[in-house]
């Protein structure tokens, strides 16, 4: 017979308060929360102060509402729910092109790497420089930059220096703008991020998301990389994003 799990009462009570606030369409006063959850009022105030301090609740004039940390959790939960739909697409692309496959998304003003499908025969790139700092040098970064409007692109580039990562990296913003306008729907990085490595990427776009699917290969294989496989994978990812809440 399995042993009963050890539960921490204060955590349970805090979660019950979060549930009660989240179930209401309006801010909830502490006294109402205490009655709803069945807690003494002093205990309720103690837990509410802690939840407000950590950002999971906020205190308003007429009661308590969900805080910014809960919004962040919702975003991450949505991405986690997305992975079971996205990962098979990336793995199929990896196996088809014999190169690591990547999904990145533009979120909160930065480019974020969401998932990688790699393996012994298709190792991923050593991301020695952060993805958000190297959009100018990566195929998926260029994809996303091209999908931003001119104001959004200027804002991004004003916050991220065009660092010289290899002798092939574009470090002139005018040259970068020219490349972005000439690349069509498939972008490449030929040893711009890492010597010996090349990447191809194409855009993923839905009404609520902008991103890119990319593959990395030895630089010598860039000319033979199947762009059509990349496009098909991006279309499948776009469909999955479009139906994700």
From TrEMBL:
SUPFAM superfamilies per the UniProt record, alphabetical: GAF domain-like (SSF55781), Winged helix' DNA-binding domain (SSF46785)
Keywords from UniProt, A to Z, are: DNA-binding, Transcription, Transcription regulation
Q: Does the keyword Transcription apply?
A: yes
Annotated GO molecular function terms are: DNA binding; DNA-binding transcription factor activity
Q: Could you tell me which SMART domains the record lists for this protein? A: HTH_ICLR (SM00346)
Report the protein name in the record.
Answer: Helix-turn-helix domain-containing protein
- Which organism encodes this protein? Amycolatopsis rubida
Per the database record, which ranges form the IclR-ED domain? 62-243
- Which parts of the sequence belong to the HTH iclR-type domain? 8-68
Q: Which GO terms describe its biological process?
A: negative regulation of DNA-templated transcription
């Amino acid at each position: 017979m399995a042993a009963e799990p050890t539960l921490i009462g204060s955590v349970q009570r805090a979660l019950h308060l979060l549930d009660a606030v989240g179930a209401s369409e309006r801010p909830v006063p502490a006294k109402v929360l205490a009655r709803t959850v069945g807690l003494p009022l002093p205990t309720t105030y103690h837990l509410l102060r802690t939840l407000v301090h950590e950002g999971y609740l906020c205190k308003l004039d007429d009661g308590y509402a969900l805080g910014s940390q809960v919004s962040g959790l919702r975003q991450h939960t949505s991405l986690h729910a997305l992975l079971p739909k996205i990962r098979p697409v990336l793995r199929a692309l990896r196996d088809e092109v014999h190169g690591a496959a990547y999904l990145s998304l533009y979120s909160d003003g930065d480019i974020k790497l969401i998932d990688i499908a790699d393996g012994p025969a298709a190792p991923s790139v050593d991301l020695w420089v952060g993805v958000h700092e190297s959009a100018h040098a990566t195929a998926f970064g260029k994809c996303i930059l091209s999908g931003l409007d001119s104001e959004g692109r200027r804002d991004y580039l004003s916050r991220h220096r065009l660092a010289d990562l290899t002798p092939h990296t574009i470090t002139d913003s005018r040259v970068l703008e020219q490349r972005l306008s000439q690349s069509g729907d498939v972008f490449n990085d030929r040893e711009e991020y890492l010597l010996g490595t090349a990447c191809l990427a194409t855009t993923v776009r839905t009404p609520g998301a902008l991103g890119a699917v990319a593959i990395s290969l030895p630089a010598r294989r860039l000319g033979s990389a199947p762009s059509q496989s990349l496009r098909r994978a991006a279309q499948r990812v776009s469909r999955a994003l479009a139906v994700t809440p």
